[in-house]
Amino acid sequence: MLQDVATAGITGSEWLRHPPSGWLPVLEISVKGLVALKTRPENHLASVGVGQIKEKFGRLRLYASAIGNRRLQAAVAQICAWAELCCENRCMMTGMPGTLRQGDWLLTLSDEARELQVSDPDTFAARLYPPCPDHR
Question: Is the pTM of this model over 0.85?
Answer without folding.
Answer: yes
